[in-house]
Amino acid sequence: MHTLPEAKGPVPDLPEAALPALPPAQPDWALFLDIDGTLIEHADHPEGVTIPTRMPDMLVALQQALGGAVALVSGRTIDWMDRRFAPARLAASGQHGAEIRLAPDAPSVPITIPKWRQPLEHTLVRELAAWPGVFIEHKPLSLAVHFRAVPEWSDAIMDKVVELGRGFDDGVEFLKGRFVIEVRPAGHTKGTAVEQFMRTSIFAGRRPVFVGDDVTDEDGFRAVRAAGGLAVAIGPRPTTQADHRLATPADVRHWLDQIPQMLEPAAT
Ligand SMILES: O=P(O)(O)OC[C@H]1O[C@H](O[C@H]2O[C@H](CO)[C@@H](O)[C@H](O)[C@H]2O)[C@H](O)[C@@H](O)[C@@H]1O
Ligand SMILES: [Mg+2]
């Protein structure tokens, strides 16, 4: 018999820190784009999101304007990105760096399926069945424990997941994002993905700009700043690493939409 914890009430967002306005985009930028909460608005369920109809054209125009140096870097799978953003196809890293496609026409390279993946999944499914409003998203190389419907249990769910994960291979990492616990392979992050992209001919020598909204984006922020680039935080989540901030995914799309025009050589 499971005893559910007492509800504590939702955790409020901290006030948005004032940061300088974004500088004009430059032709030598390399863009790294998070998806949920950055390119698209959140929804109650991972499959409930709406992809604006302009999104594929917008991404293709950005690729063309930046010599192909645009990558999607997400907790989602690359397969999901290809399906939902078709016909756009970009360089991409999925499942928090556990899979990577270094160029649009290159193959996706996944890490080996971690040993903990299946047994931990079975344990989480069994033990979390008693928690109403909590569900598990099954991805090939990682898991996501979603609790958007019961944010008041955020700490209790994290404690439970960590307790259940104790004793599994130490190659597993638990990271609490906004209304989600990402259960992911240790040693692979959005930051390691950025570093790999920056070593390829498409991205090398460019100034990396990472745009993201959640705690898993901090690794991307660190990586681009270490390479002299810019971190752009989306939404109200507090971060000490952002250079700039935009309030919403709609603001992000508006900004990205303008970049190709900004970079067009002036007509003579
Ligand atoms: O790295 P991201 O591109 O931001 O992806 C992070 C996770 O996003 C998805 O979950 C989040 O978005 C859902 C849809 O809005 C929302 O219902 C959920 O509460 C959020 O946590 C996705 O389902 C995960 O696989 C990603 O890891
Ligand atoms: Mg996100």
From TrEMBL:
Cofactor(s) of this protein: Mg(2+)
EC number: 3.1.3.12
Reactions accelerated catalytically: alpha,alpha-trehalose 6-phosphate + H2O = alpha,alpha-trehalose + phosphate
Pathway membership: Glycan biosynthesis; trehalose biosynthesis
SUPFAM superfamilies in the cross-refs: HAD-like
Location of the region described as Disordered in the Swiss-Prot/TrEMBL record: 1-20
Stretches with biased composition (Low complexity): 10-20
A GO molecular function held by the record: trehalose-phosphatase activity
Gene3D superfamilies in alphabetical order: HAD superfamily/HAD-like, Trehalose-6-phosphate phosphatase related protein, domain 2
Enzyme class: hydrolase
Keywords: Hydrolase, Magnesium, Metal-binding
Family membership: Belongs to the trehalose phosphatase family.
Function: Removes the phosphate from trehalose 6-phosphate to produce free trehalose.
Name of the protein this chain belongs to: Trehalose 6-phosphate phosphatase
Organism listed in the record: Ancylobacter radicis
The gene coding this protein: otsB
